[in-house]
Amino acid sequence: MPRVLLIEDDPSVREGVELGLRRRGHEVRTAATGESGLAALAEFRPDLLLLDLMLPGMNGVQVCRRVREDSQLPIIMLTARGDDFDVVIGLEAGADDYIVKPARTEVIEARIRAVLRRMEAPGGRPSVEFHGDLAVDRAGLTVAKNGERLALAPSEMKLLLHLSAAPEQVFSRQQLLEHVWEHSYHGDARLVDACVRRLRNKIEDIPGSPRYIQTLRGFGYRFGPL
Amino acid sequence: MVPFGLRTRLVLAFLLVAAVSAGTTAALTYREARSAVLRSAQDTAVASFREQVQTLAPSLPVEPDSLREMLFVIASKSKPQPWIVFAEYGSLRVSSGDSPTSSVITADLRRAALTTTHGSFQRVVKDGVPYLTVGVPVVVRNGSAGRLPTGLVLFAVIRMTEEQANVDALVSAARDGALPGLAVALIPALLAARSVLRPVRELRGAASSMGSGRLDTRISVRGRDELSDLARTFNESAAQLQRSVDELQRAEARARRFASDVSHELRTPLAGMLAVTEVLDEDAGGLDPDTARAVRLISTETGKLAVLVEDLMEISRFDARAAELNTDEVDAAETVRKTLHHRHWHDRVRAELPEGVRVRLDPRRFDVVVANLVGNALRHGSEPVTVRLSVRGELLVTEVADSGPGIRPEVLPHIFERFYKADAARTRSAGSGLGLAITQENVRLHGGTVRAWNAPDGGAVFTVEIPLRGPGGAQEAMA
Question: ipTM, 2 decimals?
Answer without folding.
Answer: 0.74
